[in-house]
């Protein structure tokens, strides 16, 4: 299955670096030297040569300074990411070196989902919320229960599930949306279903969607990368503020 996983393009590789740089900027707040001491031995064990390591450290230094400068200017998340793209585009040799390492250590350029397209993630996040809300309302009617108001539906949505979706990739959100839409379709079906039949049909469709996901992307959904920038139904959120709120 691993052979079917596509290699990233140069543009996708830059997005990977942008995402990684956001995580690293947070890590480097505790000290640049400690960051290097934590990562360089791992890179050497993985077989990365000194040229790649030096280039990687150089870009990390650029990243740290750029993040600080952009934050001081009060730029938005989207504006910061655009500036990072420009900075990494000035170092095309990183992608060439990464491709060389891929021949020796396959996996460096394998990707695990689109985390960088914040607009697409936001669109899917809202679509998923609206579909889930409608599905829940129809499920209440289907079960003969009173339908709560939309705000109560959101408040009663499990925090853990909301956090997972806030931190899902584009591909994961597409999968969740397909499953939610299928549930809505079943609840709208003219034929009468029992609770057991509904549960069985949902389970079967979920397995089918999972198999299709793995066949298409070459990895299971749970192996998707966790995005640095959370995207809620209100839009992209500041990483530090979101984590402080969700994980006090």
Q: Strand fraction band?
A: under 5%
- Going by helix content, strand content and strand pairing, the class is mainly alpha
**Outline, from the CA principal axes?**
elongated
Annotation field: number of helices: 11
How much helix, percentage-wise, in residues? 55-70%
Taking all Cα atoms into account, the compactness measure Rg is 21 Å
Order of SSEs, N→C? HHHHHHHHHHEEH
Gap from first CA to last CA: 39 Å
Lateral strand order in the biggest sheet: 1-2
The number of distinct β-strands equals 2
Mean pLDDT over the residues: 82
Low-confidence stretches: 1-5
Main pleated-sheet profile? 2 strands, antiparallel
Describe what this molecule looks like in 3D.
It is a single chain. With 248 residues, this protein is mainly alpha-helical. 69% of the residues lie in helices and 2% in strands. It contains eleven helices and two strands, in the order ααααααααααββα. It has helices at 10-27, 32-45, 50-73, 77-89, 93-104, 118-142, 150-156, 159-166, 170-188, 195-217, 239-246; strands at residues 231-232, 235-236. It has a two-stranded antiparallel ribbon. α3 (50-73) runs antiparallel to α4. The protein starts with 9 loop residues before the first helix and ends with a helix. The model is unreliable at 1-5 (pLDDT under 50).
